[in-house]
Q: What sequence folds into this?
DNA sequence: GGGGCTCCTCAGCCCGCCTTCAGGGTGGGG
DNA sequence: CCCCACCCTGAAGGCGGGCTGAGGAGCCCC
């Protein structure tokens, strides 16, 4: 099992390396984000331990860049902070687990083994409909090679359509699944968001993937 | 994506709800098994997070009851215990995955997304009569490989004919099934719609699949 | 505090769908 | 052969579902 530790703090890095080696890991250490990013792309590590606070490029950036580069090695983020921000941010950037400093060596190893056990699954759950791609976990979306920036709501609506591609989805259903059930506003909101989506994922590309099924709802199609 | 969290511990429930909402889920919370069971049957959730230790009815019971009630929503069981017993028991009762407390939010979300990914898409119930195909749920219709665009009413009338293919269906019957029972308008409306249908599904293809049975009604035939 | 962004509301408009209606065609029984 | 019931057909109008643009409230970050 080969692990890459990206950690700028010398003492911690050395301690991690020693401990992991004692547990049978083959350990490489990178001391800053740029180096870590490079190594992670060059070598097929089984898992990466990534500190958040790094000189130059921080852990989130490294993580995101790796995923953008189609590197799906499981990543465990180390963070000194404890805020919720880190947690959600880590998820957004595609990390697989995270650990708050200080942590026990045993816990770290347990988490790493858990990640390894899960094996390849870090692979993104990208859903494709024609050349429209959606990564619900990463909250990202593409038409072909062009990335499309969507807001949270837009993405949720599109996610629901994509997950039911080819089927008719009623406005009521979208409302129930994407909005909270205590939403008492204008159901017209669904039409509005469909319009937003069409403006972003269809019209600029001359497509018509979100069909209106009058009286029933909407249907997402491949639209070759 | 709509998720039901069944968890009696207030703090954990609130934290789960907040976290999941931050990840774009629409979250409902039930604080005991009975409430959870009821909600899960009333609302079409995409996934259910179910604690084992619940007042009144425990997670296993809820799970079993749901499956007995033909509710197939993916269920992820939360357990404080660590025994293998729980795992096999959970799977026996029809749960889809389980997670041992304490767990990281990231892991929970990853597991939920995995469940959603697995979620089986609704199977298409396509009815065929000769080379005429109808997908009532998808609101679509084909003659051979050619898709035919039908309005809601047209499709409803055709659906009734297709479901009784080969039999004579009276106009009164069509009226009662396709229109509201209290429809007091001109029964001629049925003739009008049969005409519309013939213009779309028969005439362009040189077919005559909707036969008139004078004095009785209409009959849909294969019309090889 | 202000600018930008996201989310939501609202009202007006337009087109397509549903329905009605009247007139013409057709077939069967006397 | 004639008549009447039954069915077909074309046109027209009203209505409602869906679309659209503008704008305001809340939020976050600078």
A:
């Amino acid at each position: 099992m080969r692990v890459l530790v990206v950690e700028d703090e010398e003492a911690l890095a050395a301690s991690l390396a020693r401990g992991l080696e004692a547990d049978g890991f083959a350990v490489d250490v990178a001391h800053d984000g740029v180096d870590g990013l490079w190594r992670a792309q060059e070598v097929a590590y089984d898992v990466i331990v990534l500190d958040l606070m790094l000189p130059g490029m921080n852990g989130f950036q490294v993580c995101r860049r790796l995923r953008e580069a189609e590197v799906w090695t499981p990543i465990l983020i180390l963070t000194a902070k404890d805020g919720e921000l880190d947690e959600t941010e880590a998820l957004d950037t595609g990390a697989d687990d995270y650990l708050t400093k200080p942590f026990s060596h045993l816990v770290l190893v347990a988490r790493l083994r858990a990640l390894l056990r899960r094996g390849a699954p870090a692979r993104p759950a990208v859903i494709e409909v024609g050349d429209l791609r959606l990564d619900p976990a990463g909250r990202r979306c593409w038409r072909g090679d062009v990335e499309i920036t969507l807001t949270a709501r837009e993405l949720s609506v599109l996610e629901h359509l994509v997950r039911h591609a080819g089927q008719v989805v009623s406005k009521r259903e979208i409302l129930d699944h994407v909005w909270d059930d205590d939403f008492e506003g204008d159901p017209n909101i669904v039409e509005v968001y469909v319009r937003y989506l069409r403006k972003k994922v269809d019209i600029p590309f001359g497509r018509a993937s979100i069909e209106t099924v009058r009286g029933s709802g909407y249907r997402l199609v491949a639209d070759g």
Q: What stands out?
A: The first helix of chain B runs from residue 10 to 22. Helices of chain B lie at 10-22, 33-42, 59-68, 84-92, 105-118, 152-163, 171-178, 188-202.
